[in-house]
Amino acid sequence: MTTATVPFEEVQKLIEEKLASADISQEHAAKVAEILIHADLRGVNSHGALRTEHYMKRLKAGGINPKPEISFNQTGPVTGVVDGDDGFGHVIADIAMNHAIEMAKENGVGMVTAMNSSHCGALSYFVQEATEHKLIGIAMTHTDKIVVPFGGKESFLGTNPIAYGVPAKSEKPFILDMATSNVALGKILQHKEEGKDIPEGWGVDEAGSPVTDPAKVVSLTPFGGPKGSGLSMIVDIFSGLLAGMAFGPHINSMYEELDKKRKLGHYFCAINPSFFTDTESFLEQMDKMIKEIREVPAAEGFNRVLVPGEIEQENETRNRKEGVQIAVTVYEYLKNNKIKGEI
Q1: How far apart are the C-alpha atoms of 202 and 239, rounded to whole Å?
Q2: pLDDT per residue over 183-206, tens digit each?
Q3: d(CA 26, CA 16)
Q4: Three-class SS of residue 327?
């Protein structure tokens, strides 16, 4: 499948217009588009414009509330809950993280769960928001079952991503955004869309055997064996159980029964370093850590040592100038005002 290089502003506008045509508010359409293009700019196309068509289908089927009444209940000095009323997860997550940020500024820490949500996109966006306020950000979200637990051949866990963002003084922030599976499901879908094989170890078939054809993938595998399985359960506990939502096999599917609300949960935390140590010293030490890690001699087969998020940050710098890479089919979909069967 061929790809096109398109100015990111154009893609962002096309996404916004497509979503707004489904009778959601301009504000919500703009926020979803901003978060999707954030992923494409970073080269994480699995969470970018590619997702728009799915969201439109779910909106049409009734699986996303186009006009949610999102509410926030502050349950303590540093805690709160956002009820997303089954709207767009991107908007719900953004509101939750911003409440966590405000509490952290005032009281040192802010922890917010979100309930009755849907897919919220790349978690890197939300932890990066925290770093822009010189705060540490943590984000977690669960997904429906697609990952086999360590030692099993049937899926039970979700890809259950977790992200951390840590500010630095002159260096770009440290951003770790990772699925607890070997890869996110979106990467399998992206390879399928582009007609490419996947590396062995990304997915397994019905028998639990590794496959390289993305069309044959039934389940994904956890990263690091039992470590990934354990961390995936932690994510489900924090973003699912702690938010009063379901876990693993009990979560409504993203790609089946599009008329059902997902009822997803998320967890967000913001930490203010100034309540624990001297902020300037902390930021300077982060700079030092990042620089010294880069100075570690590269092993055979590597050109240099990178810190988490560095490749994506370099991608963003380049793609803001040169444009983002998206599948031609996705670009054509966004440009067309009407698609067969669409709203």
Answers
A1: 24
A2: 877 788 888 878 899 998 899 998
A3: 8
A4: strand
Residues 179 and 163: their CA atoms lie apart, in Å, by: 9
157 φ/ψ angles, rounded to the nearest 5 degrees: -95, 160
Bridge partners, residue 271, by sequence = 109, 136
| Average pLDDT in the chain | 94
Quote the pTM value: 0.93
| Residue-wise DSSP of 133-145 | TT-EEEEEE--SS
Would you put residue 296 in left (φ > 0), alpha (ψ -120 to 50) or beta?
beta
For residues 22 and 56, give the distance between their C-alpha atoms in angstroms, rounded to a whole number.
7
CA dihedral 75, 78, 79, 80 (to 10 degrees): 70
Q: ∠163-124-175 over CA atoms, to 5°?
A: 70
Among residues 38, 332, 340, the alpha carbon closest in space to that of 193 is found at 332
Between CA 270 and CA 273 the distance in angstroms is: 10
Residue 109: half-sphere exposure toward Cβ, Cα within 13 Å: 7
Ramachandran region of residue 86, left (φ > 0), alpha (ψ -120 to 50) or beta? Answer: left
Tokens of 308: 């988490």
Cβ-count burial 209-227 (b if 16+ within 10 Å, e if not): eebeebeebbbbbbbeeee
Strand order in the sheet with 203-204: 210-211, 203-204, 219-220
Task: In whole angstroms, give the CA distance from residue 232 to residue 234.
Answer: 5
Sign of the torsion formed by the C-alpha atoms of 279, 283, 286 and 292? negative
Closest CA to 332 of 50, 55, 61: 50
**Choosing from 28, 47, 99, 119, which is the catalytic residue?**
119
Supply 129's token pair: 């928001």
Residue 286: what residue type?
M
119 is catalytic: yes
Across 3-17, 109-123, 153-167, 198-212, least confident range: 198-212
Q: How far apart are CA 152 and CA 155, in angstroms?
A: 8
